[in-house]
Amino acid sequence: MMTRTRTRSHAATFSFLRPLLLVLAVLSAPSHATTSTGTAGGSGGYWRLLRKSIGISAMHMQLLPDNTVIMFDRTDFGPSNVSLPFHRCSFGSSHLALARDCTAHSVLFDLPTTTVRPLTLLTNIWCSSGALLPNGSLLQTGGFGDGDRTVRLFSPSVRHSDWVESPSYLAVRRWYASNQLLPDGRVIVLGGRRQFSYEFVPSDSPSRRHVFQFPFLVETWDRDAENNLYPFLHLLPDGTLFVFANDRAVILDAAGNRVIRRLPFLPDGPRSYPSSGSSVLLPLRPGAAAEVLVCGGAPRGSYQAALNGTFLPALRTCARIKPADPNPIWFMEDMPLARVMGDMLLLPTCDVLIVNGAAAGTAGWDLARDPVTSPVLYRPDSPVGSRFDVLNQSETARMYHSTAVLDTYGRVLVGGSNPHNGYVFANVTFPTELSLEAFYPPYLSAGPRPRLLNAKAEVGYGEMVTVQFEAAGEYYSACSALNLEVVAIAPAFSSHALGMNQRVVVLPVMRAGWTPQQFVYEAVVVTPPSPEVAPPGYYLWFVVHGGVPSVGVWVRIA
Ligand SMILES: *[C@@H]1O[C@H](CO)[C@@H](O)[C@H](O)[C@H]1NC(C)=O
Ligand SMILES: *[C@@H]1O[C@H](CO)[C@@H](O)[C@H](O)[C@H]1NC(C)=O
Ligand SMILES: *[C@@H]1O[C@H](CO)[C@@H](O)[C@H](O)[C@H]1NC(C)=O
Ligand SMILES: *[C@@H]1O[C@H](CO)[C@@H](O)[C@H](O)[C@H]1NC(C)=O
Ligand SMILES: *[C@@H]1O[C@H](CO)[C@@H](O)[C@H](O)[C@H]1NC(C)=O
């Protein structure tokens, strides 16, 4: 139904371009249509080791708009495998983090060169949250111990940039909280261990830091296992927030501080930390209702059982809901592989990749077994029953404290895994992982990639903008039904099976056609209509042609 509607509206748009269409038939069939056969879409993908060691274990990860990736673990893990420049660690430093050892617990990984630069952290950043601000600086909130009220900024645009920390910025301690960038450019920081509240950063004034009580987090707190930490947060296109904890969700009007809707219970068990499932807001398409997907988790009792040495099978179910539906229901599906601590990533093709995690146990120190090393692809628009594909497996177990983000090249960076309270490399089933891998999804072997040649560096809301892209001649003539999509992707802050702020906005293509240059085409697309649909900031734009995405180009929406 959705597909048909879209096709019709595009056909109408294109009717005045008939001469072009004879050659360049741009249809809006689901982007996997041409890749769903053979190795291209059915199975496959491959892994590459980018670095055997980045010196730390990538427990938190965020792609930045200068094509670096910032990663960090924790400052009290003991000496990492990357040293800080000596001058940063004066002997007897008043900062515990530097006095302990002169090693880094945060690094900046440069995508083009795969080099690593150590960064300096003064307070403990462990199990924290983050969001890329509209100006491209990373805002990071909370942590543990001396860092649990710290707000940190990292500004990639600044030369030789390093962390800038503001201890005691948060009104209360936030450990295991979640963040979401809001339409007004502020960030909501919600939850955390023994924190049944939320607050906003930047706060209204340094002296007046409001904490908003949020009884939903009391109600979803399990006495013996919590199961409501790192809540799933999604900004819906009407500006309200979808908040999920444990086994249920509410719609929060954060500005008005009120819950405006309760959604039905999700059957089959808890999905939040330590029963960590994962969740994404499915790609937003003009005219289509927003939908949330939740996959995996661990059954109730799993945490206590794991403490006792019994590792219960993880949940196999995924559930989808349209929060704005008059009668919302969870639509249930079975994954081919059960999984706890999976990371879910939105891909430029509008599919979802589920990667990392385990088939038994829960999150927590050494509480999981049976690593699931095969990523699974989920195609939200395919018919029920043919949405999942099991892909090529990694050689590395990625257990507790693993991460995954989409990178500028359309790959998935995968790092971390440390189920130990320190760096442990020997004599354990799952040693601390310092490696960084890239998974190349099947679309990167599915044919020549289009190349996005120009996109404006900055655009406004609801604007028509022209993008030019190049595609190989043979590729064009070989395709009977060419399809084209342009998507804007907000980069995620990855930690503990969450991709905070992850978002795909499909930009409607109004026209497409030749340019005088051979193999160069142009498309007129409409930018997102409002900051509720796409909060201001940096997005990776990909042109996806015949199911194959280009390399991403950064565009700031302001
Ligand atoms: C799986 O990955 C390996 C190693 O990267 C590669 O040789 C193989 O072709 C891949 N298999 C599929 C089905 O893509
Ligand atoms: C980390 O450093 C230690 C001590 O230098 C070394 O033994 C170990 O092999 C290193 N581990 C990795 C994964 O690089
Ligand atoms: C980005 O915005 C934040 C919050 O307003 C501000 O503190 C920071 O200095 C800005 N960064 C840059 C590089 O301007
Ligand atoms: C864990 O073991 C203790 C002691 O044997 C027992 O009392 C408790 O019921 C067990 N809990 C679970 C969830 O298995
Ligand atoms: C691992 O176990 C072996 C055999 O028991 C022992 O020789 C070695 O010292 C242990 N290594 C570490 C790092 O504990």
TrEMBL record:
Domain spans labelled Galactose oxidase-like Early set: 449-557
Keywords: Signal
Domain Glyoxal oxidase N-terminal: 59-443
Signal peptide: 1-33
Cell inner membrane listed as a keyword: no
Keyword Signal: yes
Any matching Pfam family: GO-like_E_set
Database matches in InterPro entries: Gal_Oxase/kelch_b-propeller, Gal_Oxidase_central_sf, Glyoxal_oxidase_N, GO-like_E_set, Ig-like_fold, Ig_E-set
Name listed for the protein in its UniProt record: Galactose oxidase
Organism in which the protein naturally occurs: Canna indica
Upper lineage: Eukaryota, Viridiplantae, Streptophyta, Embryophyta, Tracheophyta
